[in-house]
Description:
Radius of gyration: 17 Å
Largest sheet: 2 strands, parallel
Number of helices: 1
Distance between the termini: 28 Å
Low-confidence stretches: none
Strand order of the largest sheet: 1-2
Structural class: mainly beta
Amino acid sequence: KIVTEKKSQLVGFACIIDRSNEGCLIKEKIISQIKIDIKTFHKNDLPDHLKNLPAEKPGSRNLNK
């Protein structure tokens, strides 16, 4: 949205850790330092060994809250 609003030209995507998967909305190449494949599951389709573990929200965006 900001690229369009500022009449800019997007030339690429970059990140430190690429956790994207086949469901990623970005179809162009992403430049990253490392690619990590992190499996995600729908709550009704959890493997047995994960069903009794508490769910955790990953990330560090809310550490100061």
